[in-house]
Each structure stands twice: as structure tokens, then as C-alpha cells.
Design a protein that fits this description.
The complex is a heterodimer of chains A (232) and B (102). Chain A is an all-alpha fold. Chain A contains twelve helices and no strands. The mean pLDDT of chain A is 91. The chains are: A mainly alpha (232), B mainly alpha (102).
Chain lengths: 232, 102
Amino acid sequence: MNNKLKILTRGIIDVSPFLIPVVPFGIIFGVLGMDLGIGPYMTLGLSIIIFGGASQIVLLQLFSGGASSLVILSSVGAVNSRHLLYGAVLSEHLSSLKLIWKIILSYVMVDQAFAVSNNYFKKNKKNTNKHYHLLGTGFTCWTIWQISTLIGIYLGSIIPEELGLTFAIPITFLALLINDFKKINNIIVMIVSGTIATLGYHSIPFKAYIIVAALSALLIATILTNINLKKK
Amino acid sequence: MDWSIIIYCGIITFFTRFSMIASQKKDTFNKKTKTILSYVPSAIFPAIIFPLVFLDNNGNLDLENNPKILASVFAVIVGYFSKNIIATIFTGLFSYWLLIFY
């Protein structure tokens, strides 16, 4: 038991520095939820039920634009499709666990928890209690996300509308991309996606501009990957 | 907004995480698929960012005297050099407020 607690604590400590940017992101989400008038219960409900920051903001953005449920669902699925990769990477470390463990760990496996715990798993392959590390990183992320959503809900009811906080949406997403700014292939994919979404905003029906632009950009990413593989 | 859409989105999100964790197959994705999946943020986020920056409230192109463009450029520059998420967000927001209030 002591050993498990130690690994859990290690997870909490390891992930903490990565949560500093999560706080303003969560606050912005809470403020936006209140700004768009879905109320405190649904705003917090989104954070608890979905627990995926980027997809929650996409949902709010599409909802406020009057998108249909199908478009909202597919866009949320597309934003979170990167988790398929995380799951595939982690599965070799978690394959011997009981189903209930896999369910719990899946619920909390967000970007930061994945990145930090995957690092730990690689260094501690033989430790049979290593999944406690992901439990620690995941639930720390969860707790911080819920608290910052609550702070945002509170602030959302007092922050004046003149501040134009909806501009926080593109800015926070932009901030999530900074690590890819130096890669030329990523820049090409970004420009394709952004241009199609902007020019297709009116012409693509059902507010499906996000999903159409994203799929087109992924097609370009596939072509670029093929070219790179051939070069090697 | 009603609760059913929130719950469906929750279920979809859960399964993007659970399906691969629960899978017993080894090497579900080959190297190429993994590389392509790593492009997902670059493929999706600009589709959200660009229209919010370059279009006005009515969805028309707004390229002249648009403070959102300049504020985004500042944020990109700070993000590129600092690699710091918080510094990027604050640069974008504060330069936007400076531009609209002064």
C-alpha cells in the first residue's frame, strides 16, 4: 500500500508544473459558459462529463453559432481523436489491468496526464503498480480543471462584456500550438486548415466548417507524411 | 443546449480514450498513422482560430483595422520565442485590450 501511495504522490508532484497553463484555460472556459448563457450547472456539467478542455470550448463555440447536434458531436470527436494515439501508446503498459481500472484511467487521461505518466511508464516498465502514477496525474488534472471552471463561472457573472473575452478562444487555442510553430509541415497544415475554415465559414453548410477544414488539413498532413517517408 | 448533447459528447470523448487503452492488440497503429495523428491539433485548432480572428460578427472578412489580427500576431511572436503558454495567452489578451481601449 505504501508503495502505491508513493507512486500516486509521485504522479501528483510530476504533473503539477504542467497544470499552471490549465488554470487560465479552465477559467476562460467557465467565463465563456456564463457569457453564452448556458448557466453554472451546464458549464460545470460540461467539465465533469466531457473533461476535455479544447473540445468543451469547441462545443460552446459551435453551440453559440447555432450548429446542429451532429456537427457538434463530430467536431468534439475530431478534437479528441488525438486521444486514440495516447491510448494506443499507453495500452502496452496497462494491458494487464482489470476493466474497472481501464475505465477509470480512460476518464482522466488528458494531454498532460498522458505526457507525464507515459514518461514515467517508460522508465518503470517492470513496476506492477505503475498505473497509480496515471491515477495521480489524471485526478490532479481533473481536480484543477473543475476548480478553475468554478472560478470562471464565478468570474463570468461579474466580468463586464466590454472586455471581449470571446477573443480568449482563438488566443488559448493559438497558445496550445506554440510547440509546432517551428515545424514547417505543421505550419502548412495550420494554414490550409485556417484558410478553408475562414473562406468556407459561409459556404460550407450546417456550420461544418471546422470538421471540413480539419479533414482537408489532415489529408495534406497525410500527403506530407508520405513525401517525408519516401525521402528517407 | 440540452443535457443529452453534453452526455453524448462525454461518451464520444470517453471512447476516444478507452477504445485504445482496452485494445489488446499490439502496435494498433503503424508509424505512419501515428505521425498523421500527431498532426490533429495543427489540423483542427486553426479551423477554430482563423474564423474568429479574420471574420467579423456577421461572418464577413475583416482585414482592415482589425485589432484581433494584430493581437494574434503579437501572441504568435511571443509564443514562438518563449514557448510559454501563459505568456502567449496574456500577450494576446492584453495587446487586444490595449488596442480596443486606447
